[in-house]
Structures are given as structure tokens and as C-alpha cells.
Design a protein that fits this description.
- There is one protein chain.
- The radius of gyration is 21 Å and the shape is rod-shaped.
- It has one domain.
- The protein is an all-alpha fold.
- It has helices spanning 3-47, 53-89.
């Protein structure tokens, strides 16, 4: 196998790693923002303005669960894509 065959494989794997990390970070941000809003609503309830606390907490929980599930699915897909990429790179000519 030549160096040219190895270089694209490494680039593809690195792109997949970064893509997986960015998507996971994006879902983490959405979950964090949902919890932020829920906590702000609790503070408004305790210190003044009344909001729908149960709905905000339910939303935060739902978004967190969805984010975790999608992150796991994406991580598995990235792993499978890496394995497929490795197999393609090691295919005999």
C-alpha cells in the first residue's frame, strides 16, 4: 500500500471524528439550554413571576433523553463508518 492510499483514509477518519464530536456538542448545547430555561423558570416561580415549571422540566428531560439517544446513534454510525473506511483501505488490489 502506498502513502497516497493511507493519507486519505486518515483524513476521512479525522473528519468523521470531528463531525461526531461537533454533532454531540450541538446536542449537548441544546440540552444545556433546555435545562437553563427550566432552572430560570424555577427561579421565577420562587422569586416572583409564575411560569409552567412542570412543562419546562419535562421539556428539559425530553431534550436531554433525545440528545443522549441521538449522540449514541451518531457515535455508533461513526464507528461503523470508520470500520468500513479501514476495510476499504486494506482491500487487496
Amino acid at each position: 500500500m502506498s502513502n497516497e492510499d493511507e493519507k486519505p483514509k486518515g483524513v476521512i477518519e479525522e473528519i468523521l471524528d470531528k463531525l461526531g464530536s461537533l454533532v454531540a456538542a450541538a446536542f449537548g448545547l441544546v440540552a444545556a439550554l433546555a435545562w437553563n430555561e427550566a432552572i430560570q423558570t424555577i427561579f421565577r416561580e420562587v422569586f416572583g413571576t409564575q411560569q409552567a415549571i412542570p412543562l419546562m422540566i419535562g421539556y428539559a428531560v425530553a431534550v436531554t433523553i433525545i440528545a443522549v439517544i441521538l449522540t449514541l446513534i451518531i457515535a455508533r454510525a461513526v464507528t461503523k463508518a470508520k470500520e468500513a473506511s479501514s476495510k476499504l483501505g486494506h482491500r487487496p488490489n
